[in-house]
């Protein structure tokens, strides 16, 4: 399974959204402009990958429903090829043919549309509707928010970042999955003594390095540190937790935790998963899609040797070990100029249904709905599915991947500074200073 959120944002998405801040609110795809109740077709623009079949079924289900008859509206999906999606969405949102509802990644991916007053604030709608309020895991609903207001309804599977490990290597060396940072360092020392690289890392793709800083900042300083940064306060990079996380990363690198050639290993071309599956590295910090990646490329390893656990707590840190980072899900947002808001919101409510959750599970995804736990036995790997679901269900906070959460104008320079830190071209102090200077 491809990580649809990850593959998009690190491609063309960031650059195409930067100029969206200049957009003005235009009429909706239904042609009549305005807001509130109306009639006719509402257009839903969606990312056209393999998983779009779930949204196709949802549209068919809604169009045959009493809700469609009551609101006088039907949904027409506009499927856009994956690589074209960000640019086409930006263009559409600045035209008279803007979609009524559109797929997005929350966070920075919709910030420009919010600032242009193009989004329906769904906070009060969710709070007043039991189906929406109680239908989703709270940490996932919150992750789609900006400045504490909700603009998205979860509509795809969860993708938390997980610490994967090779159960066979751990058994052979009498190791247990780490629950504290000191335990992790002790495991590293034992693995290196056995000539095994502790962690696979596809450092040729900077987003793989980002995951380490995301978790360390959370575990050291708590989710509030990045929340401040996400909301546009660049001085938040000066929080002591950011410097401590950068220093911890440097210690790991200097200590050989990732081996010597990690900066030339790619995740995108399968290099890092292969290093892990072939026993050359004992652990791999990666999004939950690592399971399906291994199942596709190294099925024997995935079925017999692959283990998983939470990222360990950091002694003295204020972050809860139950906190999660990664891609909570993808979201539907509603254009503020839709001519049939009632139909749009009624369509979004289908995402909380059991039928929708079953369709996600059949596709190998883990739903973010509160009703999903009882359905997970139908997943391709129920044990892994339940681990993920309970991980997110119990998370006090689920921090959206930094590259998707920050303002798009910060994304590229932030990733550049992260890469410089990992390859030794920048010290932790220089890393912090550079990020504090982002405008």
UniProtKB/TrEMBL annotation:
<dbReference type="InterPro" id="IPR006059">
    <property type="entry name" value="SBP"/>
</dbReference>
<dbReference type="InterPro" id="IPR050490">
    <property type="entry name" value="Bact_solute-bd_prot1"/>
</dbReference>
<dbReference type="Pfam" id="PF01547">
    <property type="entry name" value="SBP_bac_1"/>
</dbReference>
<protein>
    <submittedName>
        <fullName>Extracellular solute-binding protein</fullName>
    </submittedName>
</protein>
């Amino acid at each position: 399974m491809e990580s649809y959120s990850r593959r998009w944002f690190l491609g063309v998405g960031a650059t195409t959204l930067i100029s969206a801040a200049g957009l003005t609110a235009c009429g909706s795809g239904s042609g009549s402009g305005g807001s509130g109740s109306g009639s006719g077709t509402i257009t839903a623009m969606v990312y056209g990958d393999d998983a779009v079949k779930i949204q196709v079924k949802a549209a068919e289900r809604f169009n045959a429903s009493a809700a469609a008859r009551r609101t006088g509206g039907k949904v027409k999906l506009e499927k856009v090829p994956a690589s074209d999606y960000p640019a086409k969405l930006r263009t559409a949102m600045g035209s008279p043919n803007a979609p009524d509802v559109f797929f997005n990644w929350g966070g920075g991916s919709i910030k420009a549309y919010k600032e242009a007053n193009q989004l329906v604030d769904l906070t009060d709608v969710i709070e007043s509707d039991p189906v929406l309020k109680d239908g989703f895991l709270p940490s996932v609903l919150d992750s789609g928010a900006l400045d504490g207001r909700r603009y998205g309804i979860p509509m795809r599977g969860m993708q938390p970042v997980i610490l994967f490990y090779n159960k066979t290597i751990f058994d052979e060396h009498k190791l247990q999955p780490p629950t504290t940072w000191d335990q992790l360092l002790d495991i590293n020392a034992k693995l290196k003594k056995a000539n095994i690289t502790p962690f696979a890392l596809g450092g040729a793709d900077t987003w793989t390095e980002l995951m380490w800083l995301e978790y360390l900042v959370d575990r050291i300083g708590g989710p509030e540190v990045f929340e401040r940064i996400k909301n546009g306060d660049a001085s938040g990079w000066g929080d002591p937790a950011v410097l401590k996380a950068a220093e911890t990363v440097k210690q790991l690198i200097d200590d050989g935790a990732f081996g010597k050639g990690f900066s030339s290993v790619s995740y995108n071309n399968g290099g890092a998963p292969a290093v892990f599956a072939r026993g050359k590295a004992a652990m791999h910090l990666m999004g939950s899609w690592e399971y399906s990646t291994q199942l596709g490329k190294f099925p024997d390893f995935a079925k017999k040797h692959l283990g998983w656990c939470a990222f360990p707590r950091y002694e003295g840190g204020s972050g809860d070990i139950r906190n999660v980072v990664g891609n909570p899900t993808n979201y539907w947002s509603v254009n503020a100029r839709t001519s049939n808001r009632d139909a749009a919101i009624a369509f979004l409510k289908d995402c909380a249904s059991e039928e929708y959750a079953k369709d996600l599970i059949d596709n190998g995804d883990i739903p973010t709905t509160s009703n999903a736990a009882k359905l997970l036995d139908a997943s391709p790997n129920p044990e892994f599915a339940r681990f993920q679901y309970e991980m997110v269900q119990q998370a006090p906070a689920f921090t959206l991947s930094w590259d998707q959460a920050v303002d798009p104008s910060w994304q590229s320079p932030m990733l550049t500074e992260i890469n410089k830190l990992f390859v030794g071209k920048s010290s932790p102090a220089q890393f912090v200073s550079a990020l504090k200077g982002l405008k």
